[in-house]
From TrEMBL:
Full protein name: D-aspartate oxidase
Location of the FAD dependent oxidoreductase domain: 5-319
Molecular function terms from GO: D-aspartate oxidase activity; FAD binding
Superkingdom of this protein's organism: Eukaryota
Cofactor(s) it depends on: FAD
Localization (cell): Peroxisome matrix
Single GO biological process annotation from the record: L-aspartate catabolic process
Function: Selectively catalyzes the oxidative deamination of acidic amino acids. Suppresses the level of D-aspartate in the brain, an amino acid that can act as an agonist for glutamate receptors. Protects the organism from the toxicity of D-amino acids. May also function in the intestine.
The family this protein is said to belong to: Belongs to the DAMOX/DASOX family.
Record carries keyword Flavoprotein: yes
Length: 338
């Protein structure tokens, strides 16, 4: 039997998760990942990788909850296995603090993480400029380790890798039976989606091994995430900003804000600075369309626009992309327009 040729564009956490799901679930498909950048040079590589989500306004909450749960369960199984260290996935506890009491005091994922509770008055005394806080244990998935681990798993399932920038999905469709678009913020150019925009994030790497608990301000602009190699401190959320250079003022602001939250950081040594572009989109896109190519209708499944939650929702949205691909392989495609 001839194998179905599937091409996944993108080798960030979304692309590699999707490629692994397809290669392991549909053995009659031959799966190739093509990308301009691989680990350690993708946006995903610099993400702190803490599992925590904000809401997409027009996507049913049950669907977002399923994405979170499937990703959490998948990563928890890794964290609970001997693979945890190599994959860079482990449990992480800390505080989510708010300057004003939020309208919704319980996010939709509150019962999916461990031990979610409101912080006590005694705990809040550490943060005199904040009025409300939540404490919980979630997962941290460090893509600097996780992406190479996923790539190894993908190759073990027979997957192939191509290093290349893609400029035209129609041309790709000449040589493949299905295309899966996981190009993150690159989707703005690759599939001309103007709803996708960069949300620039700058962070610093600090050597402060005594820090064990994360602290995140509810506005998402100030955070301290202790990790395996360094403590990630941030950050910025600059919508529409494509600059990849480190901004000195941003770094000073980050040090100042984080030092106020956690004074012991002032004794830490900054070992690196990094900038990444979150793939911003009001609603992330997991959808299918068809490309008419020489009388064939080639399925194009999109999986991009995860904003600041790409690691958090990666496995769940990969499973949805897999389902859309599977349906299109078994159902009759729409007739090509003449
Ligand atoms: C500072 C910062 C901190 C973050 N912290 C967290 C966090 O704690 N938790 C969390 O869940 N998320 C976090 N995020 C968000 C997370 O990084 C993103 O949501 C996630 O990386 C998106 O993954 P992706 O695979 O879609 O995109 P990317 O990682 O950007 O990968 C896109 C891939 O597509 C390829 N590509 C694009 N265009 C083309 C083309 N034309 N041809 C070929 N290849 C192409 C790229 O080369 C790359 O391989 C953070 C982001 C930043 C910037």
């Amino acid at each position: 039997m001839q194998r179905v040729k599937v091409l996944v564009v993108g080798a960030g956490v979304v692309g590699l998760s999707t490629a692994v799901c397809i290669a392991e679930t549909l053995p009659h498909c031959s799966v190739t990942v093509v990308a301009e950048k691989f680990s350690p040079d993708t946006t995903s590589d610099g993400a702190a990788g803490i599992l925590l989500a904000t809401e997409f306004p027009d996507i049913p909450l049950e669907r977002q909850r399923r994405w979170f749960k499937e990703s959490f369960d998948h990563l928890l199984a890794i964290a609970d296995s001997p693979q945890a260290g190599e994959a860079g996935v482990y449990l992480s506890s800390g505080y989510h603090i708010f300057k004003d009491v939020p309208c919704d005091k319980k996010p939709y994922w509150a019962d999916l993480v461990f031990g979610f509770r409101n912080m006590t008055d005694q705990e809040m005394k550490r943060f005199p400029n904040h009025k409300f806080g939540q404490a919980f244990t979630t997962l941290k998935c460090e893509c600097l380790s996780y992406l190479p681990w996923l790539e190894k798993r993908f190759r073990a399932a027979g997957g192939q890798i191509l290093h290349e920038k893609v400029t035209d999905v129609h041309k790709l469709a000449l040589n493949y039976d299905a295309i899966i678009n996981c190009s993150g913020v690159g989707s703005r150019f690759l599939v001309h989606d103007e709803k996708v925009y960069p949300v620039r994030g700058q962070m610093l790497k600090v050597n402060a091994p005594w820090l064990k608990n994360f602290i995140r301000d509810g506005d998402g602009k100030t955070y301290i995430y202790p990790g395996m190699r360094y403590v990630s401190i941030g950050g910025t959320r600059q919508a529409g900003d494509w600059r990849m250079e480190v901004d000195k003022e941003d770094s000073e602001g980050i040090l100042e804000r984080c030092g106020r939250l956690e004074p012991s950081l002032r004794a830490g040594q900054v070992t690196g600075e990094w900038v990444g572009l979150r793939p911003g989109r009001a609603n992330l896109r997991v959808e299918r369309e068809y490309l008419p190519v020489r009388g064939r209708q080639v399925p194009l499944v999109h999986n991009y626009g995860h904003g600041g939650c790409g690691v958090t929702l990666s496995w769940g949205t990969a499973l949805d992309a897999l389902d859309l691909l599977r349906q299109s392989l078994y159902e009759k495609p729409p007739l090509a327009r003449l």
